[in-house]
Amino acid sequence: MAIQEALEEENTKDIPSFGTEDLEVIHRSGTEAGLLGIYNFPGALYATDGSNDKGVMGAGYFKLDEYRSGCCQLGRGEEGNSFNSAELGAACLALEDAKRKQDRKPIILLSDSACFLSSSQKWIGEGKSPSMHGNPDADIMRDIVQLLRERIEQGLLTIFIKIKAHHGDPLNELADRWADEGRQSDNIRWSLTTNRPIFYWTDNDTTHRSPMNQTVKKIN
């Protein structure tokens, strides 16, 4: 019966679990997060992920020590969609959750997005003077920077770590499921339009739309 139900299930993604059986513990210790010792981190551990499918963006997170999660849908889809927007939104949700719960522990945020870490990197370190001008996700990034600044002022450590996507790590997989849930959520965040010009083009009978970016520049 269980096999038949699995075959008939519309959702092609299974739900990872955090069991206490020896084999499950061994499996987790052999994942990328496990090999990095992340499961033994003494602070709060969040996994974040973004989803972008069928013109809708979602963001989600999973918090390990309390087995809690959250998600939202990202607005502004009429200006085009991007995984980076969704990944930024997921990180912001996790940081907001830590602030809301007044969690004064050090935090690790796991993300499978190199783009998210790259876009955040320029705001880190002394002697840098980045600008929000021209940033398509300036509203989300502004919220993230403010949350990080507050944590720094309180002496709270925040660590971003990149892990590989869909390599069997239950934390990453759970964050992925909540990002998918975010696309169905009635909680819509970061929906104000930026008034940027929107370009439309057709490729293989599929119509795309996006503000000016590197892809649009390459279109003849």
Question: Nutshell version of this structure?
Answer:
With 220 residues, this protein is α/β, with parallel strands linked by helices. The chain has helices at residues 2-8, 22-29, 32-35, 83-100, 114-121, 138-153, 170-182, 214-218, and strands spanning 44-53, 56-63, 68-74, 107-111, 158-162, 188-189, 199-203, 206-210. A six-stranded mixed beta sheet has the order 5-4-1-2-3-6.
Provide mean pLDDT, rounded. Answer: 83
Radius of gyration from CA coordinates: 19 Å
**Alpha plus pi helix count:** 8
Strand content: 15-25%
Q: Can you characterise this structure?
A:
It is a single chain. By secondary structure, this protein is an alpha/beta fold. The protein has one domain: 2-Layer Sandwich (Nucleotidyltransferase, domain 5), CATH 3.30.420.10. Helices cover 36% and strands 21% of the residues. A 6-stranded mixed sheet has the order 5-4-1-2-3-6. It has a two-stranded antiparallel sheet with strand order 7-8. Strand 2 and strand 3 form a beta hairpin. Helix 4 runs parallel beside helix 6. The protein is globular and about 55 Å long. The mean pLDDT is 83.
Keywords:
alpha/beta; 8 strands; 220 residues; 21% strand; Nucleotidyltransferase, domain 5; single chain; 8 helices
Q: What is the fold's blueprint, element by element?
A:
Layout: H1 2-8, H2 22-29, H3 32-35, E1 44-53, E2 56-63, E3 68-74, H4 83-100, E4 107-111, H5 114-121, H6 138-153, E5 158-162, H7 170-182, E6 188-189, E7 199-203, E8 206-210, H8 214-218
Parallel strand pairs: 1-4, 3-6, 4-5
Antiparallel strand pairs: 1-2, 2-3, 7-8
